[in-house]
Amino acid sequence: MARLFALEIHTPYRLFYSGQVESFVATLPDGRIGVYAGHAPFTGVLEDCVFRIIDAEGNAKEAAVSTGVLIVTGEKATVLSGAAEWPEEIDRKRADDARRRAEERLSESMMKYEAVRARASLARAKNRLDVLAHMVLRP
Fold first, then answer.
1. Is the domain of 48 the same as that of 103?
2. What is the DSSP letter of 41?
3. How far is CA 83 from the centre of its chain?
4. pLDDT over 70 for what percent of the chain?
5. CB 102 within 8 A of CB 118
6. Fewer CB within 10 Å of terminal CB in the chain, N or C?
7. Which pTM was predicted?
8. Do 67 and 11 share a structural domain?
9. Beta strand spans in the chain (E)
């Protein structure tokens, strides 16, 4: 049996996930990271990503998780994120519309801060659509 550890994912609006897990995979600025029980203490910046959890029963769950902070301390990991959604909470049309709007804004000339916001919006929309694509592709 795999060793378990506690995982909590917090957003400003809710405790998104709390439970014992075997592992999870997330994306940091320099690549993907897999975390298992006993991982070395670590604090890092979390990117918009498909966050993959293997729960205590060995079931895989995926969610769209926005930028935030990942804190790993021995037998517990905590994520503080701007937003997190399960696939069934994502409105495909709304995410696709947001992607299109962000791409249109990026094609226009704009101030630097507007481009930064448009790129962030585009990343969030693509992340939501990626989570839905993973759900559809899974056997």
1. no
2. P
3. 8
4. 92
5. yes
6. C
7. 0.79
8. yes
9. 5-10, 15-28, 31-36, 42-46, 49-55, 60-65, 68-73, 76-81, 84-85
Tokens coding 101: 């709007």
Backbone angles phi, psi at 57, to 5 degrees: -90, 0
Residues 20 and 61 in one domain: yes
Q: Quick check: 50 and 62 in contact, CB under 8 A?
A: yes
CB 87 within 8 A of CB 65: no
Structural domains of the chain, count: 2
Query: What are the backbone dihedrals phi and psi of residue 84, each rounded to the nearest 5 degrees, phi first?
Result: -150, 135
Same domain, 29 and 71: yes
- Give the list of residues 6+ apart from residue 85 with CB closer than 8 angstroms, or none: 63, 64, 128, 131
Structural domain including 101 reads 88-137
Cβ pair 26, 48 in contact under 8 A: no
20 and 69 share one domain: yes
DSSP state of 37: T
Q: Is 37's pLDDT higher than 80? A: yes
Could you tell me the CATH number of the domain that includes residue 128? 1.20.5
